[in-house]
Design brief:
A: mainly alpha, Sodium/glucose cotransporter, 21 helices, B: mainly alpha, 2 strands
Amino acid sequence: MMEQWVIGVAILIIWVAVMVVVAWLSTRYRKMSVTDFATTGGTLGVITLFLTYSATYHSSYAFMGTTGATYTHGVPWWNNIHWTVLPGILLWLIGRRLWTLSKKYNYISVGQYVEGVYRSGGNIAKALGIIVSLVGILFVIPYTAMQALGVTYLFQIVSKGHISFTVGLVIFLLLMVFITWIGGMRGVAWTDTVQGIFMFLAMVFGAYWVIKNAFGGLTQVYALGAQRIPEAYSLPGLKEAYTYRFWVSQWVSITVGMIAMPHVFLRYFAGKSLKVIKWAGVFSAAYLTYLYIFVPAIGIGARLLYPNYPTPDRLFPEMLFQYTPFALAAFACAGALAAALSTADSQLHAVSTLFTVDIYKTLVKPDADEKHLYHVDRAFVLIFGAICAWIAFTSPALFLNILQIATAGTAAIAPVLFAPLYWKRVTSKAALTSALAGVIVVALTTFVWKNPLGILSGVWGLIVALLVLVGGSIITKPEESIEDTVTFLKSAF
Amino acid sequence: MTTGEKIFFFIVLVALILSNPPVLTYVNNYCKTHPLTLGLPTFWVYLTSVWTVVIVAFGIAAWKLEAWNKEPDLGGEK
């Protein structure tokens, strides 16, 4: 009889094969242009955009980190609901403005948009575009490495240790690079569509099955938890970490930071029409929220069963294997693979596109044509894939911590990205100062003076960036390009 | 901004107020003495209910609001 670990690995391999085939099929519609590689030229429909936005937004943190966070803190983890509903709404409210500008000016990357909208600033606008891109790249790469770590755990668990950390990491990274390299945004979006459906089913049904088999049902696990660990049911939670300041600063930092992340930002440009953006926003808000419907029960249940578990992020897969049939557990773990891969390939795609369009084209070869940039973009996919591999070998922290650090960095540049969509008085000089000040403050409050007054670094960076942007804009001369942009958007909506 | 849009933004604003301090402080105190409601964590039920209203309102607004059906005129500078 075939050993269980062989069956588990076989299921994962089948899943990988499906992803490779879907990515390959997407190449039928491929055009040899960087615009197509970066955003599909704005051709995605509702289902594809909604699922690539949602699957990209939710990562290995969704499958493994959330159980770890609920295990560690209890139900207060559900602060998460702020950054599951609001991104869908913001995809519509902010995304429609960015989509409209991208259609009008052919923007395909973050830095290009920034340089374009602040164009009256001349070289300052150019510098600003490069800085914003670099900040996005620098903060996204560790987050991409986080996805690799999530999947590597799974290979170890499913194979019962037969697949080493190194081999699991290599398999994941090769798949991530292949999908991105062969299909660009279209390949990533198509595989995200399949993965988005699969991860939802795996997470919801897998979690329910575990709860039912381990405790008899939802109400049973919650009743037992209320008796034994009542502090898990209210703020500040089990570790007393969820103070009110932490509560507010966490959701503000992650919500703002996530919608400013390059891999999320590029999706604002990818929809076929405004109607597509609108319905993708509605469905994303629902999907992202109800994906977690049984997570609190899993976290509470895990706390009751394994009160001193050293690596809480591994608990959900462990429970799947303990309380559900082996094949089902392995199948659900493929859902976790989907969660991690759908974010990682999107991030790799975004990082390589930003570097190609915003750095390479701007500084190295301004006259490069679409085909040349397409090949350069694919080359950078390989280079950044290798960099992610190197970072992934560093000691893993809890997924939530990496998410917070990554989003803190992008939260600091959010005012520079979004203010020109609404406020005529923003200027390039103020924006450049704001971006630099915000990132410096995030670095200081992350590594030197950690989270002063119990407020997360992302919020400090956001506050300073906002103040500098508003103050600086008021004392500097208004710029024509911003005025034109806001006037145009006002007439458009 | 149309009346429909104002209503939608008001609902989002109310949800933000309800799910943050100081309102959350009172809710949290209640959760300490009543951790469960209908067998589920009171804190979870409260937040999920508040934001489900927002999701439903978003869907209705997307379906009904004329102002959200407008496609922009992209003519002019290219």
